[in-house]
Task: inverse folding
């Protein structure tokens, strides 16, 4: 039975899982669970993931959720996946786990918290929360700085001094691409002080093309929609963040 | 060269790593990095973990931090560790990763956020934050309910329907033992609706004795200190949470 991947491409960890499968030639059926339609909470999906989150997979008898766990499982279960994605070497693997754990409590709440509370909330029926956005902004800025000065060492193209991408590169870069939803000036304010981070995002994109752009298409369309709404004054203007 | 473990037993992930080493007969030197004295930010420790967090380990040339990454590495690198802690079976292992990932964004911020903002902050030179405590209370209560109804399935003694503990049991239980620092009535309010959770904490304690109690000794002493302070009226009284 073919692998089933339950996703919404607007969700950053969903994008990471889909790109990973495509890049590594893993055959799968992609099943849309629309977050905008709240399908993740529908009874049919509760049988797949009772906690109501995407991405989730079904592979034979295994039902699994949490994107890092999924990426590790796919790397281990599908022989077509090259070693660099999740190395057999214990020390290299340990460092990848370390980055992924750090991601959970730093980059993820920073990036997702900022985008949700400064731009995305209204389209999910929630109010914008400037105080939460300000807190997330600080965590995101600190996390970007840690990426720039610590995780992206030396002149290597990818995290942890590697010249080939791992699941950590893909997961973290897909987290950061959601910043595309911000006003362009605000996105530049956040990213441009971190030249290595900008180059690393581009390196990861190139290493996973054409799938990277194809899977992100929905996000780029949403970006255009938000830009139009900004012009019409129905979403926060650039710089609202600095007024808080 | 013997494994070096940099910890403060007041930190819940530090306790998990120390108990794990002791239970599995892993020889190690324990080096105290006192959080109260802010030694995690000292230049000497920055060479071990530039991000200034405990626990961290040094094993030969490998420097590693993030407790889940450490527990996975130790399980893989030390042959004395029994399979049930981190099974070779891909599906079982995947489920353990899934619980550990869930822990990062649910139980951990719930438990640690609540204890910090309702009790611990003043002893770290920080103000109590009732609003943050209230938010963490909700996340903790929801997480305990998810543990009770989802992760602790059927009548198994441990997470994921297992009859032997894994690194996930140890990590999550050590997270929850910090609730000992709360006023006893408040701790009972949080835990007592979750009978399976209470039994599972006790099962994990028993499976890792005598090390569990020995490593938690510092926490029990801190609990007594807080109780005394409560009697003297220098820390928040029981039930202050319900007034918010």
Result:
């Amino acid at each position: 039975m073919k692998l089933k991947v339950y996703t919404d491409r607007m969700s950053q960890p969903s994008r990471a899982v889909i790109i990973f499968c495509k890049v590594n030639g893993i055959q799968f059926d992609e099943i849309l669970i629309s977050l905008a339609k709240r399908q993740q909470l529908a009874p049919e999906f509760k049988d797949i993931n009772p906690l109501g989150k995407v991405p989730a997979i079904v592979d034979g008898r295994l039902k699994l959720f949490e994107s890092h766990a999924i990426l590790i499982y796919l790397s281990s279960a599908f022989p077509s996946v090259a070693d660099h994605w999740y190395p057999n070497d214990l020390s290299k693997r340990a460092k990848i786990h370390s980055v992924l754990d750090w991601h959970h409590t730093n980059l993820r709440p920073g990036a997702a918290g900022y985008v949700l509370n400064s731009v995305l909330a209204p389209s999910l029926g929630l109010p914008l929360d400037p105080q939460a956005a300000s807190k997330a902004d600080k965590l995101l800025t600190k996390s970007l700085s840690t990426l720039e000065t610590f995780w992206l060492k030396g002149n290597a193209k990818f995290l942890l001094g590697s010249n080939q991408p791992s699941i950590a590169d893909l997961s973290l870069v897909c987290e950061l691409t959601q910043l595309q939803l911000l006003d362009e000036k605000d996105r530049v304010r956040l990213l441009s002080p971190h030249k290595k981070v900008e180059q690393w995002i581009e390196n990861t994109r190139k290493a996973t093309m054409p799938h990277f752009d194809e899977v992100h298409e929905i996000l780029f369309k949403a970006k255009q929609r938000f830009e139009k709404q900004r012009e019409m004054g129905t979403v926060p203007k650039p710089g609202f963040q600095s007024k808080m």
Notes: Chain B has two domains: 3-81, 90-243.
